[in-house]
Amino acid sequence: METEAERTSRLYAEAEAKRISEQIDDDLREERERLKKKKGDVKVNALYNYAPHILILRCKLLLLGQAESGKSTLQKQFQLMYKPTSMDQERASWTAVIYFNVLRLDDTLDEDAEAQPTSADDSQSIIPKKARGNGIADQPSPSTSLLTGSIIQGSPSSLMPSEAGGFHSHSMKEGGALQIANLRRRLSPLVAADAQLAERLSGGISVSGSGEGGVFVRSGWQARTIENALGRIKQKRPSVESEKKTREIETQEPQDPLVQDVRRMLEHIRELWHHPTVKGLIAKRKLKLDEWSEFFLKNITRVASPDYVPSIGKVVILAVYRAHIHLIPPDDILHTRIQTMGVAEHIFDVNIHGKSVTWHLFDVGGAQGQRHSWVPYFDDANAIIFVAPYLEEDPRTNKIDDSLQLFTQICSNAAEKRSLDKTDLLKAKLDTGLKVRKYITSFGDRSNDYETVVQYFRAHFLQVHRRNNENCRVLYTHFTSVVDTKATQRIIGNVRDSIFRGYLQSAALV
Ligand SMILES: Nc1nc2c(ncn2[C@@H]2O[C@H](COP(=O)(O)OP(=O)(O)OP(=O)(O)O)[C@@H](O)[C@H]2O)c(=O)[nH]1
Ligand SMILES: [Mg+2]
User: Fold this and answer.
1) Residues 258 and 353 placed together within one structural domain of the fold
2) What molecular function terms (GO) are annotated for this protein (predicted)?
3) How many angstroms does the Cα of residue 456 sit away from the middle of ligand 1?
């Protein structure tokens, strides 16, 4: 016979069992509904609920690709997304890089003035660039400066456009040559400034295997550049007055005297940029500027202004404020170009489904002499983002081929994601009549439109991946312009989710 105490205990146990059973039913129903809504999210939540101790607390991500492919630009997008305040703090240090990019106009003028058109078809002709310094093949860059070179003296006619610039007569040509010669004389102090800027950015260290004449930055250069500038100010004026000034500077934007000196001379660069002769050469495509130099030269008035601070992370929009229209400048920092030396680690706390995960992003130098430094990072990388530029018109090296070869080597090594980059430039080049088959013969007679070209490149990379995917890694492809903040940040979000899902699958938890 059941006692009262036993009965109470039994009823309690039955009620508890029923409650647990209903709870499980509810959980399962909820789970099913969530699964229907968003499969991936449910898997992630399930992991957090039932196995919180095995969360990835650390995720290693490698950014690989050839030089100038856009790895550091993509890294800046990550920083903009996950650590925007640090980007803001570094703004002043980017001025030196931007001025360094602006001074490339002189180099380009010098070398292109000596070069001859490569084909009778001007719309297609690309003037070859000479390698600076050690001549690394995938680091095309100028070798001498207009400031020290001899374009006008050596070959005045080469700077004379016959149609686009409107200089037909001999005397007009001579007039243009004289004006440019005068400008160059005024620019001569920039020779030293250019070298100093290069030294400042490279931290005074020259390393073999670096392209672009050894001008590069290493991890943490932003802080060093600012400290350097402030250190020089302190050294120059060790008085009470100077200490007061230094304190003032520390609370405002750091002011680098060298950068200030260059800024004052940019007026002459502006004149050179607007000179009809230079304009004529550009119009006839006899002057090939790097896209980053061109970007800053087009903005030279803003960039040379006394209170200039590089803009950051803004989409170009027109803001209407009290009936005034303000043009918010495009992002300067994303358009800068300075090559990376070695491997730079960037750490971000990334929020994934409400949990914080520490990401270690490794941005590597892509020059051929740099690639050996990637090796130690392959083993425990959770994912690789391989950045491939679409089409670079460099006659000395077929960049797509180089990218495919590099991709083949990487495929047999590790997990990878891939991003096909510089789609904006591809579109622009196709619009100006560039024929893909001229650079890639296997493209054949396919239609020269953007969609066909994009799919053609994609198919190439997929094929390489299929043939070399010994580790059965997953490949995701994205087409993007990395300087487009909105589009790139959407891709970063996708990459984050797919890496996390891949991790869960590899842990056999879903
Ligand atoms: N217009 C445009 N420019 C781009 C794009 N991606 C990169 N760039 C520019 O290309 C230049 C080279 O990019 P980086 O990010 O420095 O190249 P990288 O791969 O880090 O090069 P290394 O450090 O030498 O290996 C920069 O000036 C970028 O602004 C793009 O999608 N569109
Ligand atoms: Mg880089």
Assistant:
1) no
2) G protein-coupled receptor binding; G-protein beta/gamma-subunit complex binding; GTP binding; GTPase activity; metal ion binding
3) 22
* 267 domain residue, yes or no: yes
Residues 291 and 400 in one domain: no
Distance in Å, CA 457 to ligand 2 centroid:
23
Annotated binding-site residues for GTP read: 334-340
Domain that holds residue 461: 58-87+340-506
pLDDT at 313: 61
Ligand that comes closest to the CA of residue 71: 1
Phi, psi for residue 449 in degrees, rounded to 5: -90, 160
Residues 6+ apart with CB under 8 A from 201: 96, 97, 100, 215, 216, 217, 221, 225, 338
CA-70 nearest atom, ligand 1: 15
Share of the chain above pLDDT 90, in %: 8
Q: Is residue 346 included in any domain, yes or no?
A: yes
Ligand minimally distant from the alpha carbon of residue 386 = 1
Nearest Cα residue to atom 28 of ligand 1: 335
The residue nearest atom 7 of ligand 1, judged by CA position, is 70
CA dist., res. 61 & res. 352, Å (int): 15
ipTM of the complex: 0.99
Kindly give the number of the ligand 1 atom that is closest to the alpha carbon of 387: 19
Protein residues near ligand 2, an ion, with CB under 5 A: 71-72, 340
Q: Does pLDDT of 402 surpass 80? A: no
Mean pLDDT of the chain: 69
pLDDT at 231: 52
- Write the DSSP assignment of 220-254 as a string of letters: THHHHHHHHHHHHHHHH--SHHHHHHHHHHHHS--
What are the pLDDT digits (tens) for 380-390?
788 888 888 77
Listed in order, strand segments (DSSP E) in 137-239 are 216-217
pLDDT band at 504 (very low <50, low <70, confident <90, very high): low
